[in-house]
Amino acid sequence: MLARQKSLWAEHTVQAMLGELFCAGHAVLAPLPQGRRPCAAGATIPGLADAASGMWGEASFSGIRELPIARLLRQEFGLPTAIENDARACALAERLFGGRKSCGRFFYVTVSNGIGGALFLNGALYTGALGNAGELGHCTAVENGRPCGCGKRGCLEAHAAGPAITKNYMELGGTPGEERRAAHGERLPPARGQGAAALCTFALEGRLLGAALAQAVNILNPARIILGGA
Ligand SMILES: [Zn+2]
Question: What is the mean pLDDT of the chain?
Answer without folding.
Answer: 88
